[in-house]
Structures are given as structure tokens and as C-alpha cells.
């Protein structure tokens, strides 16, 4: 396998740079703010995306929520953060947890609902598990946060699994043609939105995406879900094809049974949609999220 020069440098340092300098502030690459509604939301896009993937949702829901959308540093055209070297841990996710804590505090957010799409849902669950006092609920948007295949693994076995998976990722995608194919928009997405997403997905360097990807694989949310002390809600996409939809629905339910969600956790399926659910069925997505976030989320959160 031939690795790009940037990736070689990153891997040689254990996917790590230097300790944050100056005032030690943990920062996101970009912060978008919208809305004046009664409930606070933090919106995190998928790996490879930036905060602008949420702009249409934010415009539609500005009277429902007070929203902050975040670009992970290193996504878009922003710089990858400097982190404490840790070749065995999750230094980039550690950085994001600190950055998210500061955002909640400095934006004076009132126990926001944390909405994470894809890999960001894994981070959202971890953040809520570590800081339940700062969060009133977690929304997983179409992520396999409960990896039933590794549920019950001890830390060493889980790490070995994650590192083997990451070697496969590097083998598959460290070339221009496979990377372009991975970041191609689905054929059923409207042309103008497909162009929007493809530009977004192809902007950050592969090395940046790989840095977070490894930490994502190493984060075992299956052990966190059952002990999560805030309400959990999942929105999963289902294709229009009824046979495929039935298979996906069964697989997702099986995964949540093997790596159980917290007491009271709920799952909804949005039919006729794809991974970016809100792009295909905006009304259904908005209604599902609002029913959770505008319900008695704060009041039903269990205390530590």
C-alpha cells in the first residue's frame, strides 16, 4: 500500500501533533448560529462534512430552536487541531469532547440536545456519557452507534478490531479513484445538492479524515449506551425499496438488542430516505427531531 506523504507524516506521529499552545483553548473549525426558539441544539455533521450541511435545516427550524452547528477542526478547509500525542488512544475525539464542553459553556447553551450525524453521533454519545450535566438529550442520525459485532469485547480486543478495520480503510481509500467514489453523491440526490455535498466531502485532505476515522473506530459506544443518563433518540434512514428497507430495519433493531440502548431510548425509521435523511424527507425528519427535542427531554433526564 502506498500512502500519501501527508498521511505518512501523520501516521508516523501516532496520528498526533503537539499539545495545544497559548491559552490551551479547544476550538472548532467553524461555528454557525441560527434561531431564537425555546430549545437549544448542537448540530454536528458527519465525518468529511462541515457545518453548512445543516444550514437548510436551521433555516426551516429557526423559530423552534436556538442552534449552533459545528465544523470539526480539519474538516472543510480548516486546520487539523494540535493534540496531545497518544498512539493508543483517541486524541482527536478527546480534543472534540473538550471543544464541545467549551462551546456549551461559552455559548451559554441551556443543556442542549446534541444531534450527531453518522460518526458525529458516536462523539455525541461519548460526550453525553462524560458530561450528562451539560446535555438534555442525544440524537443519533443514521449511525451504527451500537456495534453489535464487538459488544462485550474488552478494551484490548476492541482496539485490535478497530486497528484492523483502520488498516482496511487505508488500503481501500488511499488513492484518488477510490476516494472520489467514496465521496460521490447518491444517484437519487437532486443535482444541486449532490454538487454541494461532493464539494464538501472532497475538500478536507484524506489525512484529516483518516485521523478522525481511527478515533471513531476506537470509540466503543456499545458499552456507553446502556449506562447513558440522558434520553437517547435515533433517526434511521430506510430506502424506498421495501425488501432492502425490511432488511435494514431488522439489522438495526438486532444491533440495538445486542448492544442495548438506555432505558427509554427510542428509534424511528424514515422511509424513502438515505443517509442524509433531512435532504430526502425534510418534513418527516424535522417532525421526528422536534417531537423528541421539544418534548419533556430535560424533565425526563435521569440524574447521575
Question: What tags apply to this protein structure?
Answer:
alpha/beta, 7-stranded mixed sheet, 304 residues, 12 helices
Give an overview in words.
- This protein has helices spanning 5-12, 55-60, 91-106, 119-130, 155-173, 176-182, 191-201, 206-218, 242-258, 277-280, 282-293, 297-300; strands spanning 30-34, 39-44, 65-71, 113-117, 137-141, 232-238, 266-271.
- With 304 residues, it is of the alpha/beta class.
- It has a single domain (5-177, 205-238, 249-295), classed as Rossmann fold (3-Layer(aba) Sandwich), CATH 3.40.50.
- A seven-stranded mixed sheet has the order 1-3-2-4-5-6-7, with helices on both faces.
- Strand 2 (39-44), helix 2 and strand 3 form a beta-alpha-beta unit.
- It starts with a helix and ends with a helix.
- Residues 1-23 and 297-304 have low confidence and may be disordered.
Please work out how many helical segments DSSP would assign: 12
State the domain count.
1
CATH class: Alpha Beta
> How far from one another are the termini?
48 Å
Cα gyration radius (Å): 18 Å
| CATH architecture assignment name | 3-Layer(aba) Sandwich
The helix content, as a percent range, equals 40-55%
Q: How much of the sequence is in beta strands?
A: 5-15%
CATH topology: Rossmann fold
- Quick one: CATH superfamily? Alpha/Beta hydrolase fold, catalytic domain
What is the strand tally? Answer: 7
What is the makeup of the main sheet? 7 strands, mixed
**Shape annotation:** globular
Helix/strand/pairing category: alpha/beta
Q: Assembly state here?
A: single chain
Q: Mean pLDDT, rounded to whole units?
A: 87
* Poorly predicted sequence stretches spanning 5 or more consecutive residues: 1-23, 297-304
Question: Strand-and-helix sequence, N→C?
Answer: HEEHEHEHEHHHHEHEHHH
